[in-house]
Every structure is written in structure tokens, then in C-alpha cells.
Amino acid sequence: MKNKIKSYELLEFAKKYSNERKFGVALDYLKKCAKFKEFSKEILFEKAKIFYELNELDKSCRYFLKYIKNSSDVVLKANAVLIVSKIYKIKGCYDKALFFLDGMDKTPVLPQWEKERLDVSYYKFNDFFKVHEFSGDAGLLIKEFEVIKSIRPKTQRELFYVSRISNYLHNYEFTKKLINEQISLANSSDAFYNNAILNEFEIASKTFLLKSKPRGLWIAPGSKCNISCIMCFSKDINWELSDKNIKDIYSYMPYLENIVWWGGEPTISEKFYEMITYALKYKNIKHTVITNGQYLPQKFIDLVIDNSIEVAFSIDSVDKNKYEKIRYGASFEKLMENIAKLKPLADKKLLKINSVIADYNAKEIKYILKFARKWNFRTVSFIPMISKDIKNNMLKRTDDLNKIDKMIGKDAGVEVNSSIKILSGENCGIKCATKGFCHTPWSYATIRYDGKIVPDNLCTCYRKESFNLTDSNFLKYWNSTYMTDLRKNIISRGACSVLCPQANVLEKIKK
Ligand SMILES: C[S@@+](CC[C@H](N)C(=O)[O-])C[C@H]1O[C@@H](n2cnc3c(N)ncnc32)[C@H](O)[C@@H]1O
Ligand code: SF4
Ligand code: SF4
């Protein structure tokens, strides 16, 4: 009994000093307390808490796991699980964090559980979104939505995140109800989230004339290039973005989540450096630069490494002869030299490959994937070659192409994206939600290398008509008759045409 009283006192002293953040003293008391072989579980819990505060996460996690295994105190155990999941979240182990969160008894800590559950979900899935695109595993996203849809968002970011997933999975009624219920959150002070939530609401409400601004842009500062690829149209064009339009684009920067820089070749364009430097003031924007990788001056290398910018190398073959035949004027050695210069980005998983696939390189796919793994690229995007003759856009199905489809969103050593399957007119799984429609014209705009604007760079709608920036201006585009007609048309049909490589709603059109 005496021992129990003594060790209880020691434990209380340890807790007191721990609360005062005098962790060294607290640990000394815990050590003395342990000698009495009493309160061993409580000691474990206190130690774990202290190491968490000291940022010794591995140690803290070990103690907490031991505590969870042995304890029957429901409240303390739930708190321990919450901290363990936080530790796994900090370490980027989101699946482990979710394993503990979903398996725990959440009754005693429901509000904290909900906050943590949405937070881990955000970190696990949000990175796979680029405005209207999702490059992760859609099956997992559906399962995730089933869990998070019952959690009431408490911040603007959470409200935006849940609405974005809900809309992506075409649950439009749910999105509208959710945003309407949280209207005070939707209209808070942050311009970026206000716009993003309004945009999701306007998609869900099938609005044609938008109050929200675009959330993503592809920007071609000009058409000029340093090589002459066999499949590219930009080489025949001489166009540059005007200063007036650059100013208009700047006014949309506070609302943007993503900019993809292309051209022409951005690395040789002064306007590219001027615009990206301006855009870097806006911290919500994730940038990607698409380059042929032939000319990367030091100022480009410093820019992308210092600002952790994603770089997409266009590589349609990893065979030197074939590469140089497709990319006329390019050198394979130069490409390899420049990839090596961006190693710090490869280490941060910020390098990707864009491969334009036609019949002449469809057999290269496995070698491109092998190359991507070897040089630590995060993603490979296979893009169908667009040709002026629409019939030529249909790639012949091959075993290699079928294999790509199976890899999308799955672990193939790299993330694999592909627009090819959809273009070939086959069933496209989850993306073909029959109740949905293509959202791209609601949230995205692509300024092409010829001064035309279309929703997405792979849009086929521009073939019929297009909005010409040179004769007008960027601000007029968003609610122009061209765009409102396009939106109306898409709502009634699901997408512009079966040939659209981006449309998520092919089944609806086929019916
Ligand atoms: C026009 S380039 C501009 C950026 C840069 N010059 C480059 O090649 O990466 C942008 C992307 O379009 C791809 N591309 C070129 N011609 C294409 C075509 N006919 N169909 C589909 N994509 C094409 C390129 O391979 C590249 O990945
Ligand atoms: S490098 Fe890019 S812009 Fe230049 S010709 Fe090739 S695909 Fe076109
Ligand atoms: S359906 Fe296709 S062509 Fe039409 S807007 Fe969407 S992406 Fe563009």
C-alpha cells in the first residue's frame, strides 16, 4: 500500500512537470516511479506523450503502441490512437494512420476523430487531384467517400475537399446539400477557398454562367520552339501571348490551384520566366512545366529546384535513334544530362514523363516505364497522338496498350496516367459514370500555342469552333457564348463527342 501511495505521488509529479514542459524532470520522476512496479501502463502513456512533445516520434509511437495493446482505459486508449495516427500522418504513412483511426473506438473522442480522419484523408488523396483530374485509384476514392461523407466539415479546406470528391464521383445532390448547409463556411475570408467551393457548387448546380473563376490553367506563353517534332502542330505557328492578356491572367492568380506551362518550348521564352515569377507569389498554385528537356539554363534549374516545381519531360521513346527521329533536332545525350541536373526534383518525386503514343511507338511503353523507374520519375502520362485526321487518332489496340489500362492508379513502380483507352472508345470503368458530365469547362482553361482557348489541351471541341484570344481577351472567354453553349451542350450529352480523350462520361453518349 505504501509503495502504491509513493509511486502515485511520483506519477503525479511527472504529470505536473510534463504539463509545465519540463520534460527532463518529468522523465526522471517516471524512472523513479517505475521501480515500484505500479502504474506501469500510466507510465507508458506519460512517456509516450513526452517523447511526442520532444518530437522523438519513433520512440513515442513505440510506447503508445505498447500502451494501446495493454490498456483497458477507453478514453486514454482512444487518445493514444489519435496521437499514433498523427505520427503516421507526419511520416507520410497515411494508410497506417487510417488503419488505426478506422479501427478505434471513437465514441469518447468523436470531434477529434472526425477532424483527424478528414485531415489524413486530405493528405492521402488531395495530391492526386489537379483541379478536374484525379490520377489516383478511383476505387479507393469511392470507398473513402463512403467514410468521409458522414463527417461534417468544420473548415473551408475540409468543405472544399469533401465537395470536390463528391462532385468528382458525380454525387451532385450531395454536394449542393453539403455546401448549402455550411454556407457560412463557404463564404469566409479566404478568396481561394471561396472560389473553389463556389465553383464546385456551380458544377453541382449545372450553372452555365459562372460567378466562380477558373481554378486551373494551361498557359502557352508562345509557340516558339528550339526543335521540330514530327507530330507537333506548334512548329508551323508564330504566336505570343500579349501583355494585355498577361495582365488579365494575373487577375485570376488568387483563385488558381494549378498552372501547367507549355508552348512552344517554355524554357526558351522570356515571358514564361516573367509570368511564373509573378505566379509564385500565390502559394496555393502548384506548377508543372512541360519541356522537351533540351535547353535548361541555370536560371531554369534554380527556379524549379528552389520552388519545388514539377517538371514533365516529353519523352516518346527511350531508344536514342527513335527519340531523335521523333524529336527532330533533339539530342538524347542532352536530355539525359538535363534529367541528371534535376535529380533534387526526382528525389522529391517531382519529375514526370509525358509520352505521346502513336502506332509507331506503341511498343515502347514497357521500356518507357522501365526508364521511368530507373531515373526515379513519379508519373508517366501516356497521351494519344492527336492528328489533324481524326480517324488517325484511333490507336490500334495492342497487348501493350491493354497493359497500361491495368496499371492506371495502381502500383507499377510509377504512377501511370493514360488518356489513350478513352480515345479508343472502349468501356472506361469508373470514369464513365453514367450520371455525370465533363466538368472541365467549369474549372479549367487552356491557352494554346496558337492563341486559341479551349477547356483542356486534349479537347476535341475546338475542331468545330474555337475562341480566339488574339481577337478578344482572356476575361471575356470565361462566360463567352462559346463557353456557355459548350457547357449547355455538355450537360445535355455528358461530353462533346465520343472521340474526346478527356470525357469521363463516354457511356452516356454511347447509349
Ligand atoms: C506542344 S508540347 C509543348 C512543351 C514542350 N515543347 C514539350 O515538347 O514538352 C506539349 C506536349 O504536347 C505533346 N504533343 C506534341 N504533339 C502532339 C500531338 N500531335 N498530339 C498529342 N500531344 C502532342 C508533346 O509531346 C508535349 O508533351
Ligand atoms: S518540343 Fe514541344 S513544342 Fe517543340 S516541336 Fe516538340 S512537341 Fe512541339
Ligand atoms: S468533353 Fe472533351 S472536348 Fe468537351 S469540354 Fe470536355 S474535355 Fe473538352
- Ligand roster: S-adenosylmethionine, iron/sulfur cluster
Global morphology: globular
Query: Which consecutive residue ranges, at least 5 long each, have pLDDT under 50?
Result: 422-434, 505-511
The separation of the N and C termini measures 80 Å
Mean pLDDT across all amino acids: 88
Helix-strand makeup class: alpha/beta
Instruction: Report on the biggest sheet.
Output: 10 strands, mixed
Number of domains: 3
**What's the CATH first level of the largest domain?**
Alpha Beta
Account of the 3D structure:
This protein is an alpha/beta fold. The chain has three domains: 124 residues, Serine Threonine Protein Phosphatase 5, Tetratricopeptide repeat (Alpha Horseshoe), CATH 1.25.40.10; 74 residues; 295 residues, TIM Barrel, CATH 3.20.20. The strands form three sheets. It has a ten-stranded mixed sheet. The chain has a two-stranded antiparallel ribbon with strand order 1-2. It has a two-stranded antiparallel sheet with strand order 4-8. Helix 20 links the parallel strand 10 and strand 11. Helix 5 runs parallel beside helix 7 and helix 9 packs parallel to helix 12. The protein is globular, with a radius of gyration of 27 Å. The C terminus is likely disordered. The chain binds S-adenosylmethionine and iron/sulfur cluster (SF4) (2 copies). One iron/sulfur cluster binds next to strand 4.
